[in-house]
Amino acid sequence: MQYVYAFEEGSKEQKYVLGGKGANLAEMTNLGLPVPPGFTITTEACNAYMAHDRTLPDGLLDEVATRLADLETKMGKRLGADDDPLLVSVRSGAPFSMPGMMDTVLNLGLNDASVTGLAKQTNNERFAYDSYRRFVQMFGKIVLDIPAERFEAALEALRHARGVATDPELNAEDLAELVETFQGIVKDATQGEFPQEPHEQLRYAIEAVFQSWDGRRARDYRKLEGIPDDLGTAVNVQTMVFGNKGDDSGTGVAFTRDPATGEHRPYGDFLRDAQGEDVVAGIRTTEPLDAMATQFPDCHRQLLDTMQRLENHYRDMCDIEFTIEQGRLFMLQTRVGKRTAAAALRMAVDMQAEGLIDTREAVLRIQPAQLDQLLHPQFDPHAQYTPLATGLNASPGAAVGTVTFTADDAVARHELGEQVILVRPETSPDDLHGMIAAEGILTSRGGLVSHAAVVARGMGKPAVCGCAALDIDVHARQLHVGDTIVREGDLISINGTTGEVVLGAVPVITPEPTGPFDTILEWADGFRRLGVRTNADLPNDAIVARQFGAEGIGLCRTEHMFLGDRLPIVQRYILAANEAEEIAALDELEHLQRADFVGILEAMDGLPVTVRLLDPPLHEFLPDIEELLVQDARGELDDTGRRLLHAAQQWREANPMLGTRGVRLGILKPGLYRTQVRALFDAATERKLAGGDPHVEVMIPLAVNEPELALAISWVREVAEETATETYGAGGINYAVGTMVETPRAALVADEIARVAEFFSFGTNDLTQMTFGFSRDDIEGRFLPRYLELHLLPANPFETLDVDGVGKLVRMAVELGRATRPDLQLGICGEHGGDPASVAFCHEVGLDYVSCSPYRVPLARLAAAHAALAAAGPGSTA
Ligand code: PEP
Ligand code: MG
């Protein structure tokens, strides 16, 4: 096996063997660009080293010696020679960029003899000794593991002794003395001399870079970025060039397009008479690239020409590190450059127009998650702050406001013109008005499918949920985080994109989606097969979603139509002593719901609207039983209060999520579903009479078998017939009836259920809860973080669909359902419908559409296009 490749031997396709940096250095070399020569030791050598107890594989050192000899011949210099020495850098380079996570040794080859050669050759003794002391310092720290502070303390002591404040004020003799001191530190720490033999220096440095792959920093970074541990790092050994050899030298970084805006113009910084670290360290003020035109006209021209060539070659924006050594330009590194979301969109659209890439590639260049950055306010990336606590990133975006602890307080402050953050242990449908008034929502309990998270996402408002560090005392109107007390009225900032909670106001920027945003999405629509609908309960949400490209409503939850000022009517219904009272309450509700449905059908005119009949258990519409009991004990309950307490006790259940909810409640209280359906069909009729085009889909929640569903569906059909007959005669309204598949049993008997259902919508929130037996409201605040840390689960199953388990049920239901009814319509309306990885699965199993909250519609459109393109394979146009 070949372990060492000269730059001429590699190419950019070999990043797994040569690492990203090595592959790109090879590519640039073969393009004829001025790259300082060198060679790359492969990732395979690193992996062999690690696998054999940190021993270099046989033959590696011989190969290194051969390549080094070639390099010496090419450069006409020898490593460590005392006349005109060759010096090299030794740098890590993994297959994926891991900036600053592994080790680098510069100026290798310097020793007590070659330092004089370097001084003579550059006519700069100070430069030579400064390079040497840096080398001993870096080698000591990285290769010999000596604490950096020991070298820094010696440097500090020397500055003190010389009465100077900065390193540049030390002269050549000072630095020569420092080299001796540093070598003394090495001797003291290792009981051996600082290695003078350059080949030995090189061997040590190679091993140190290999070992840094397994260092703490690198391992943590890989975990964070999801980079596999077994890739290994390559090692690049490259001839040193110096940008700090005087006024005819310099160094810089450049981007072929502006990485912040995407504008098509070269962008970058450079520094005269400096080394790479000086640019990055930001100690000296850099000059813009344009300034090079007057100071180094030839190099500037050559650089611009090279940038153009690199961009044409990589067909993407590149970032570049370069050095000018005594009037000669060298390219030290290039790679496809990082960019903001706005820049990514603009570049993709521009490059398509320029013919650099095709439409397919332009669409693939944007990650769905990047769109989120453009749809929601964000913390200013330059802002400095320390988070007070961190919770779940439940709904993206950032918000600043005063702390309020109840929905009513939030509304009151909002009405006075204040921006507020609603802080609750958790939210319930009762808090909706407060959530509407608030800029953002913060809870100490609940996960990604908790009420707060789902509703906030629907509204496009930031939310941080399950922030367990918050100890909230609603009655005292304050919260504690450790020793910090936050009171009502204090300012806080929340970042729903990261889960951070910050005391005080963090500056927020509000991005504007621009033309390229729409262009990319239009192109995406041309590639996707999946439809994209929205989960929306209110006309306004439906309008927003439609503007984002939603093709209908996949889930309209109707529970909010029973809350707020309608709650007393619902309670009257629950407490009704006889049929007449029941009917009176239902009539009132029917009337109110009809207006709700008209608004929603109008907002989605011409598109399907899936209305789910009432889903939550009845006790959710009753006051909290504990509070009622307290009031009762204090003798504060009137007659209605006592009846409510009685009803609350009667409807109380040990496992409400597995209790009398969904279609089961419908069966117990058939009047409820009939009322809802009548309101819906009347609304549809009204829309039709007004010239509208309503498409109604009635959805029954939580079904487990055919008879149960058939019964509920029979009421829908009866009401439909009555309504249609009253208004138009038969067949007036275009409608379908179907069910949610959200219990494992429904998935297992989907063939049976499809006999009566015209569509299925996978309710993967409940399906995940019931398949795993994981409470959707609790696990994120309990054991899930530990499970993720220990890799006992690959991801939060309430965020990304568990393909192996829940996905198996979905796939089975799709196959069984279609076997009974080939034209069965299939969608998903659980929160997974807006998660890019889950969207890919939905494409793969052949669903017809995904449905997600309005602000996730653009992401889902793009994710659906990516899924279709990935399934069609590379090079296809899908
Ligand atoms: C579901 O269970 O996936 C669903 C969409 O319904 P809900 O979240 O309202 O229970
Ligand atoms: Mg559900």
Element layout with pairings:
Blueprint: E1 4-6, H1 15-30, E2 38-41, H2 43-51, H3 60-75, E3 88-93, E4 104-108, H4 114-122, H5 125-142, H6 148-162, H7 172-190, H8 198-212, H9 216-225, E5 234-239, E6 250-255, E7 267-272, H10 276-281, E8 287-288, H11 292-295, H12 297-314, E9 318-325, E10 328-336, H13 341-353, H14 359-364, H15 368-375, E11 378-379, E12 389-390, E13 392-395, E14 398-404, H16 407-415, E15 420-424, H17 432-437, E16 440-443, H18 451-459, E17 463-465, E18 471-473, E19 478-481, E20 484-487, E21 491-495, E22 500-503, E23 508-509, H19 515-527, E24 531-535, H20 539-547, E25 553-557, H21 567-575, H22 579-603, E26 608-612, H23 625-633, H24 639-651, H25 663-668, H26 670-689, E27 695-700, H27 706-727, E28 735-741, H28 744-748, H29 750-753, E29 759-762, H30 764-772, H31 784-789, H32 806-820, E30 825-828, H33 836-845, E31 849-852, H34 857-872
Helix pairs in contact: 4-5, 5-7, 6-7, 13-19, 15-34, 19-34, 20-22, 21-22, 22-26, 23-24, 26-27, 33-34
Which percent range describes the beta-strand content?
A: 15-25%
Compute the number of strand runs: 31
Structural class: alpha/beta
List bound small molecules.
phosphoenolpyruvate, magnesium ion
Q: What profile does the largest beta sheet have? A: 8 strands, mixed
Provide the gyration radius in Å: 34 Å
Shape, principal axes of CA atoms: elongated
